[in-house]
Write a structure and sequence with these properties.
By secondary structure, the protein is α/β, with parallel strands linked by helices. The chain has 2 domains: 197 residues, no CATH class; 158 residues, Collagenase (Catalytic Domain) (3-Layer(aba) Sandwich), CATH 3.40.390. Helices cover 15% and strands 24% of the residues. The chain is built from 7 helices and 17 strands. It is globular, with a radius of gyration of 21 Å. The two termini are 24 Å apart.
């Protein structure tokens, strides 16, 4: 379909990436420390972050998304610490069982390098590699919390360490979250390789459950993959903003969903294209942005967002704070457990209401809502599906093979 440039045009974006051997600068987190900054200043990128050259101005919501997210490229040095939880620990996070696992930072880092590193290399197509290094054991007191242990590990971490993962010897209570993670503070004007975790407070915590001997020789590492996503600045997805984790199509929601189909599965599923864009694993040159011109349909051919090249993400602007992403998730790779492949739509909401605060919800405070289907959201759009409509847009899949042929139209808000 050929349209007059005055009516509609596809936004062409050229991305010039500064090649670096270490991870890019860091920004804030959903559960960052209270005084953590929330974004990089508009039009200024910390050294080590990608530089973008735009033929056309980006929609404000997309510009602000890119200004408040950071590149994670190359090697990410993460120390692995053990939180030795004493009997009688009072924090409600811990299970009241007397079970304590004998965990060793060297053994844990070896397992994580074998499984989690391979997972993220697959997700990033080789652009990002976490390197887990053995830290030490922190002997907790009876009244210390998981955050206390993580803080102690961060305080003692090496200057060359860009993140910390703390693993407890006790399992978490059934009523507690399995773990937490944060990207920490912005590291002002320095690449992450020179941003020590002791300063940025970038880290994550998990309970002992994933390393229980009952799993066998390969631990269940989907939770560690999820929490590392938070260390990259990724947020939850689904139809909630809390801890429900009700989406099965994104590791940043219910990361254990693959085991519902394959009990032997240990990794989480793949992630959404918006997270790859946030980490700069998906270049802007592989993103199409449509304009909200009323009444005219436009057709796009989308490669899988989980793939390595081609147009893999379609952006549909909504307003100055929100935009939709459209992407093709095939039944393959880390998502081979899907009942069927298809197209999903995600609302990226950076408005103050998204995080119930007075200021805009930039960076990991943004909300990512799955718009197609109902939880766990495996009912993806296919040529047999009806047309999806929402936020003034309609999306219809007209073909599905190696690419998804998608027709979109803007009606009104």
């Amino acid at each position: 379909m050929r349209l007059s440039p005055t009516r509609r045009r596809r936004w062409r974006i050229v991305l010039a990436v500064l090649l670096i051997s270490s991870v890019g600068a860091c920004s804030s987190a959903t559960d960052a420390p209270p005084n953590a900054a929330t974004s990089s200043p508009p039009n200024t990128a910390p050294p080590g972050s990608p530089t973008t050259t735009l033929e056309h101005s980006l929609p404000p919501s997309v510009h602000d998304f890119l200004s408040s997210t950071s590149a994670f490229l190359g090697t990410d040095r993460i120390e692995v610490w053990v939180c030795e939880v004493p009997q009688g620990a009072t924090d409600p996070t811990f299970n009241r069982s007397t079970l304590r696992l004998a965990l060793d930072p060297s053994v844990l880092s070896g397992l994580l390098n074998k499984y989690v590193t391979a997972y993220y290399q697959q997700l990033s197509h080789g652009a990002y590699q976490p390197a887990f290094l053995p830290g030490r054991i922190h002997q907790m007191t009876v009244d210390e919390s998981p955050q206390d242990c993580l803080d102690a590990a961060l305080n003692s971490s090496a200057a060359t360490t860009s993140g910390v993962l703390a693993v407890a010897t006790a399992e978490n209570a059934a009523t507690a979250a399995g773990g937490f993670g944060t990207i920490g503070y912005i590291c002002a004007s320095r690449p992450l390789s020179r941003c020590p975790a002791a300063s940025t407070r970038r880290g994550a915590y998990v309970g002992a459950s994933d390393f229980h001997p009952d799993w066998g020789p390969e631990p269940a590492v989907d939770l560690e993959e999820h929490e590392l996503g938070h260390m990259l600045g990724w947020t939850h997805s689904g139809d909630d903003i809390g801890e429900d984790h009700n989406s099965g199509i994104d590791v940043m929601s219910n990361s254990a969903a693959p085991r519902s189909f394959d009990p032997g599965r240990r990794d989480g599923q793949d992630t959404l294209g918006i997270n790859r864009l946030a980490a700069r694993w998906l270049p802007l040159s592989d993103v199409a942005i449509d304009q909200p011109i009323q009444g005219t349909a436009q057709t796009f051919a989308l490669r899988p967002s989980t793939g390595a090249s081609g147009t893999r993400l379609l952006v549909l602007p909504v307003d100055s704070n929100r935009f939709l992403t459209v992407e093709y998730l095939p039944k393959s790779g880390l998502d081979s457990f899907f009942p069927t492949g298809g197209v999903t739509v995600t609302l990226i909401d950076q408005s103050p209401a998204a995080c119930n605060q007075a200021t805009r919800c930039l960076g990991p405070r943004r909300r990512q809502l799955t718009e197609v289907g109902t939880a766990p959201f495996f009912d993806l759009l296919t040529p047999r599906s009806g047309e999806w409509t929402g936020q003034g847009w309609s999306v219809k899949v007209t073909g599905l093979s190696d690419v998804a042929t998608v027709q979109v139209k803007f009606s009104s808000r």
